[in-house]
Amino acid sequence: MRSWGEIAEVLSRYADKTDRSSLFLGFFSEAYRGLSGKNPVLVGGGAVEVYTHGGYVTGDLDLICDAAIARKILTGWDFSSAEFSRSFYRPEMDLYVELLGVQDVNGDPEATSRVEAMLVGGTMLFSIISLEDLIIDRLLAFVHWGHRESALWAQAMMKGALGPETLLDTGYIRRKLSEQEDAEKLCVAFESLLKEVLAISEREEEGDA
Amino acid sequence: MKVRRYEDVKARALENRPFLRALLARDRLKQAPPPDHLPRTEEKRLGLIVFHAERMRRLKATRDPETGKRIWIYPLDRSE
What CA–CA distance (Å, rounded) separates A181 from A189? Predict the structure, then answer.
């Protein structure tokens, strides 16, 4: 396992917080794989931050992983933590890690099976919730808690993935939303947000013409 | 059964009123937007969606030839 000194030296070459977080996740995943043969998965706001390349800024990195293994790695790297806590931090590097334990992504085995890889700096890899499942997660926050900001981030990610080269599986999103308890509400919200995103693209094209 | 006198309850409530008012005021202050806050216009909201989508497009994607799964390529900006 790499020493924290070695990792800190690499991280300190990057001024951008999201760049540092992404590299850190690469190093952490490498160490975690070495001990468990598995990959931790980044979910939540940290995943929005990575997908939007630092547009969204969160304070923490929520990781689905075995807490005992992760704790061993992070304490070995001198991360601070309260004895009872699942949070580990190194303030000088703006790193705050929350260990969620072993669980399914979005509480859904299919979402776990769709986890994707993020390649950082050409060599480091970490696992991240799929873009579609992250959009679903933000839609749930918007519809269930009325969190308007979550809708904006869902739309930014939809728009980012719906360029000339479509990277978004809207069929999957529709199917998963239709399986939820309040499917109708969620589907209406999704279609309305998507329609708005597509309208922006049309306006952009008209502007270009 | 314990019996409370209305006058006593009222006196206690009056005594606590400034404290309750202070609590309410604090909550209102917490919920209030900052003094220089301008409500986000519809135009600004759409602009933000476009802006963040552009940032996201810096990430390129490819497929793992074996699993068919997507691999995102995160670009790093070295500061030195």
Answer: 14
Per-residue pLDDT of B36-77, as tens digits, reads 666 778 888 899 999 999 888 889 899 988 888 899 999 887
Q: How close B34 comes to chain A (CA, Å)?
A: 17
Is the pLDDT reported for residue A138 higher than 60? yes
**Structural contact between residues B69 and B63, judged by C-beta atoms closer than 8 angstroms:** yes
DSSP, residue by residue, A65-93: S-HHHHHHHHHHTT-B--TT-SEEEEGGG
Within chain A, how many helices (H) and strands (E) appear? 9, 6
Which of A9, A50, A119, A195 would best serve as a mutation to test chain B binding (most B beta carbons within 10 A)?
A119
What tokens appear for B17 in the block? 């009123």
The residues, ordered by sequence, that sit 6+ positions from A194 with a Cβ below 8 Å of its Cβ are A158, A170
As a whole number, mean pLDDT of residues A172-177 equals 97
Q: Is A57 on the interface with B (CB under 8 A)?
A: no
pLDDT for residue A59: 76
pTM for the model: 0.83
Nearest residue in chain A measured CA to CA from B70: A116
CA distance A130 to chain B (A): 9
